[in-house]
Structure formats: structure tokens, C-alpha cells
Amino acid sequence: MIRIFIQNTNLITLETHMNSGLKLEQIKTYFEQHQLPAFDSSSIIYGMINAKAWQYALFSGLATLCIKHLLIYFNAEKMILIGLSLSADLTESITIIPMTKISALSFKRGIFRGEITFTFEQKKYHIKVPNFIVAAKWHKGNLKNILERYIIRYS
Predict the structure, then answer these.
(1) Which of 46-55, 66-75, 76-85 has the largest mean confidence?
(2) Per the count of CB atoms within 10 A, which of 10, 43, 65, 66 is most buried?
(3) At 67, is the pLDDT very low, low, confident or very high (cuts 50, 70, 90)?
(4) What is the rounded distance in angstroms from the CA atom of residue 136 to the CA atom of residue 151?
């Protein structure tokens, strides 16, 4: 009986660490720990970069493991891309892109998800962004905020 209680406690502990990349408090702590700009909770969204067509052709269903999940943080000076694991945990993968180096920034709206596209260092990026996320209720409002404050402004 005591063993089951300990195992259940461990499960609860593990469960609270999953999806840390979708919890605003965890993201704020991550920003502080990595000395990133002051965290504005209304300027971050989830996105993903799909696997390449050749990866789907070669690996079939396993190509989904090549999808890059990330958080995208915007402010007036930079866009920050933070990698997420498959279980939506924050990783050490951080890419900081100055807004002055980004060109052709745009957003194409879709029924269930949209797509942010931009060019940086002569490479075009396509990031799929869902219109809403059940596990991150903040996402829908943040997407609207980012579109108004940053995407429209820089496109």
C-alpha cells in the first residue's frame, strides 16, 4: 500500500514537469534563467516547422519526428525562437533574430492554423501557428496581439 502511494507521488511529480513550454510561469522563469529580455506574457505563441517533403517521402510516418516545435517570442527589437521537445518541454535551443534583419514578414490565416513566413539571412522560414491550443488558453489572445503589434507593423 505504501509503495503505491510513493509511485503515485512520483507520477504526479513527473506530470507537473511535462508541457512546461505551455505554462506562462515556467516560460517566465526560463526567460530569467537564460537572461532573455523582460518577459511579456502577451507576446509569445506556439509554432511548428514541418518536416521537409523529402523526409516524408523517405521516412513516411516517422518524418513527424522531424517536425520542430517552438515558442516564438516577439518584441520591438527581436524575435526569439525557443525549441520545445516532443512533450512540449522547454529546451536549450534558443535562436535570437533581430527584427531589422527580418524581411518579408507576413501571416496567412487558415481555418485551423495560420502560417508566419519571413526571410532571414536569405533563407525563407514557414512556421505553422494554430489558431488556438486547448492546453494553452493564452495562445489565441497572444496571436491576435502579435499580429496587430508586430506582423502588420513589419510586413
Answers:
(1) 76-85
(2) 43
(3) confident
(4) 21
Residue 76, C-beta contacts closer than 8 angstroms, at least 6 positions apart: 99, 150
Quote the CA–CA distance of 140 and 142 in Å, as a whole number: 5
Question: Which residue is listed with cell 491576435?
Answer: 144
* Residues forming a β-bridge with 127: 116
With cell 511548428, the residue in question is 48
Nearest by Cα to 69 from 56, 86, 57, 55: 86
DSSP assignment string, 73-118: EE-SSEEEEEEE-TTS-EEEEEEEEEGGGEEEEEEE--SSEEEEEE
Q: What is the mean pLDDT of the chain?
A: 82
Q: Rounded to an integer, what distance in angstroms lies between the CA atom of residue 92 and that of residue 88?
A: 13
